[in-house]
Design goal:
The protein is an alpha+beta fold. Helix content is about 55%, strand content about 5%.
Length: about 400
């Protein structure tokens, strides 16, 4: 019997049983029992809790502190873009502001600012590898820029630009330089477009003026030929000088035969040759000696005035702005990352939970073996032993 009892005890002692329980169906776990279990392992619970908190504090101290700079931007005023509006070109403030926001979010423009200001020296050593340089730009600068609308319901409202980084002393300057760079980039792009349009208008006016001068010169040559032919006719019919420019009745039939090709509208239907040799020769000499056609071209002076205005118009890009900065960029006093209190609080909760569960598991495992060592045998074991007897 003793041998059988020892075998059964050895067998059933490998089962994990709560201490002091004889029948799982009849036993109950009270809060007092749980509290007693925790008190028995309080050192372990407290140790695990404090260990997690200490590790969290160490992690917070090791993680780099990330700060945030921000600036508020709004559409430019009418006076800010007045220098861009002239001739037939007219911009609206919102139109220029939309162009600025597009450039602000373009990665290519940001990369140009990054390269022009040599910001790479703050993040890594100088390298000739363009791929590595671009990777550093994306990781350390581009992905740390955030553009947010101040009012999502109002597309024409202002925007809030954020820049995060570990160099708190430089973030505000970088953000202001970025805004100024994109402001200049946008205005210069608009100015180039305006200048291209002005140059096109200048070319068109110059072509028009040159055409008028060429046509006027050809008209002068045509006029000379008309007068020369009229002079020949005047000599043939012996009209030396006609002061009255009147058409005699007795000579009407003769002039009517040659008037088909030499009528001048300004002479009220009087044939050109009837002006006489003196007048015709004088006009021919005057036309031949003429050096400049400009005074005789209708509308030429107006075109020349427009051309001079376009050529004299200079756009000073420094007087125009594509955005209105509400106030200078500022850096928040406290870092936005890591969130120290949140990390420590979560670590404390995890440490407490792990400590409590560890206490219960320890009690379940070691408590069962303690009962076996003290000779506690479950009722089922007694029944089996009695049956074998």
């Amino acid at each position: 019997m003793d041998k059988n009892t020892n075998e059964l005890e050895s067998l059933y002692c490998h089962q994990i049983v709560l201490p002091g329980t004889a029948d799982s169906a009849e036993s109950e776990i009270s809060l007092v029992d749980l509290w007693m279990i925790l008190m028995q392992s309080k050192r372990m619970v407290i140790g695990v809790f404090l260990g997690c908190v200490v590790m969290a504090i160490g992690l917070v101290c090791l993680l780099p502190k990330v700060y945030r700079a921000e600036v508020d931007l709004f559409p430019p005023g009418v006076n800010d873009i007045a220098n861009l509006n002239f001739i037939n070109k007219h911009f609206e403030p919102q139109e220029i502001y939309v162009e600025f926001t597009k450039n602000l979010q373009r990665k290519g423009v940001r990369y140009k600012f990054y390269i022009d200001n040599d910001l790479g020296r703050f993040f890594s050593e100088k390298t000739s590898d363009k791929n590595e340089l671009y990777s550093v730009f994306e990781r350390e600068f581009d992905k740390r820029i955030t553009v947010r609308k101040k009012n999502a319901k109002n597309p024409s409202g202002g925007i809030n630009v954020l820049l995060e980084g570990t160099r708190s002393e430089l973030l505000a300057d970088w953000l202001e330089q970025l805004v100024n760079f994109i402001d200049r980039y946008t205005v210069n792009g608009l100015v180039k477009g305006i200048e291209a349009e002005v140059n096109t208008q200048i070319e068109l006016l110059e072509m028009k003026i040159a055409t008028l001068r060429r046509v006027a010169k050809q008209q002068r040559q045509d006029r000379i030929k008309q007068l020369q032919e009229a002079l020949i006719i005047a000599k043939r019919i012996a009209i030396k000088d006609n002061e009255n420019n009147s058409l005699p009745v007795e000579r009407k039939s003769i002039t009517q035969q040659a008037s088909d090709n030499f009528l001048l509208a300004t002479q009220a239907g009087i044939p050109l040759f009837y002006r006489g040799e003196v007048a015709l020769q004088s006009e021919i000499n005057s036309l031949i000696e003429r050096k400049d056609e400009s005074p005789f071209i209708p509308g030429l002076r107006k075109l020349e005035a427009e051309l001079a205005e376009l050529k004299n118009k200079k756009i000073d890009a420094s007087l125009s702005h594509a955005v209105l900065v509400d106030q200078p960029a500022r850096v928040l006093d406290k870092p936005v990352s890591p969130k120290s209190m949140l990390i420590i609080a979560l670590s404390a909760m995890v440490g407490l939970m792990v400590g409590v569960f560890s206490a219960f598991i320890k009690n379940m495992v070691f408590g069962a073996y303690d009962d076996c060592e003290k000779g506690h045998v479950l009722p089922q074991q007694d029944a089996i032993v009695q049956g074998k007897e």
